[in-house]
Amino acid sequence: MRHANFALSAALALAACQQGKASETTAPADPFAGTWVDLTHALDEDNVFWPTASEYAHVEVVHGETEGGWFYSSYDLRLSEHGGTHLDAPEHFAEGRQTTDRIPLDRLIGPTAVIDVRQQCEENRDYRFTVADVERWEQAHGRLPEGAIVLFRTGFDQYWPDRTRYMGTAKRGAEGVAELSFPGLSEDAARFLAEEREVAAVGLDTPSLDYGKSQDFIAHRILLGENIPGFENVANLGALPAAGAHIVALPVKIRDGSGGPLRIVGFIPEGD
Ligand SMILES: [Zn+2]
Fold this sequence. Notes:
Helix content is about 25%, strand content about 25%.
């Protein structure tokens, strides 16, 4: 983990270096040569929130012309920490682990591995990602890098924000929880990432690290128990290559938070 916070700058330096070589000039290369992509759903009342989460509210305080003659706009915001594109802080399922404000930046910024499980999830919407799914990525791209932010691409963001198609139900409360249906990590895959690899964080394009029918939230308990945060309801994973991109995922810094709204973006260095 120690080196992970240098991963992005190292990659940028490498990209800069390669660019310098290619052009054979001594002018400093642009360290941001590449493409930034947004992996975040915009927050609004149509967002998918957990069936038991409180309702989202974005309430107008002022919006319009003031007495002084200028325009002014301001809203109040109320939302669950666990709705829309969001972070699960380790303490969400592991008492005494890191809260939102205490997660080190090298857990939130780093190289990414995008593991494509779309076909498996299309065949079975209650699919649980396996160790073999991770190993298939490694066979193609090499061992998961130290400090990797592992993102599983189920393809379910195509259903967003249709709650029934995205998470199996539009019902709220306990009745909704009983009908949840979407893919997530198996216990074995969570254990493999937590214990056999030095991953920084794990994310996916579904509402939860655990599949919808989970009763014990074992993937959450394993990953968060090792201080590995989760990124849920991630969008637009098709914009990233399977390997070679970097993630910057910065949650609102809520003191003692169990999670929080997340702005997650990817950087694809030029040439990738
Ligand atoms: Zn969550």
